[in-house]
Amino acid sequence: MLRIGTWRSADSVDLVACGWRDSGPGHLETGIKLILGIGDRVPEFPGLRTGTMVARGAEEIATQLFRGLDVVLIEPDSCPAAPVVAAGMWHYGWTRRDLGALAGATVAGLALAAQRGPCAVEICRDGRGSLDGHATAAAVRARLADRFPGGRYRTPEVTVPLESVRLRQEAPSRILIAPCAGTR
Question: Mean of the per-residue pLDDT values for the chain?
Answer without folding.
Answer: 85
